[in-house]
């Protein structure tokens, strides 16, 4: 298991979301099993579901970045499970100003948003695994996921990165 395992799982999970017509919602399940029943997710739960499938997080363990720009860990042992394999790096810069330091598989936190850095495409654009509202057909809550692997709006400050320790 390494940081690239998260990218493989992010791709598989994104394809599952699109195939099964998952919708964007704040009313998410706290486990991957529950998510498959409800068929809803949001940006942070998508990342956590990937980590649950990899065995890094347990069902009931989630995290996200709140409106105050703080990383919030939900569920007993979540912070310890993440800290065992990831290092939290304070960034506080626009993604383009941190582009040369990002590594594929980095989990990125913004105010009220979370995604996974996938890498740089052939057009030299940063690409992300991102299950935010903008990845849906309506770009609103309730929208059905269409494209989760994409270039994002880079005008929001990247506050923190979780980087694989290995």
Automatic annotation (TrEMBL):
Name of protein: NlpC/P60 domain-containing protein
